[in-house]
Amino acid sequence: MEFIKDSNWIYAKDAHGNVIAEVTYPVLKPGIVVINHTYVDGSLRGQGIAGELMEVCYDEIKSKGEKALLVCPYAVRWYSEHPKYNDIVIED
Deepest in the core among 40, 43, 74, 80, taking most CB within 10 A? Predict the structure, then answer.
């Protein structure tokens, strides 16, 4: 799946232009973003798409030298299950 990277938003669209997967991470303050939303269309669930979104999001945040506050329940769970990515995570 091809992900499109926009300002604090990573997403994928279907052939009709509908967003079918996304993660949003708006800026909280300089150097800190909030991963606040992850969505994967029901037709794609169970294929690891949300995990792929988390990895791409991690790479984007890390490459900018930023840290992330996790608010999205999926992100909280994913990062707890993948501790090697926790170097960008900050506590509330």
Answer: 40
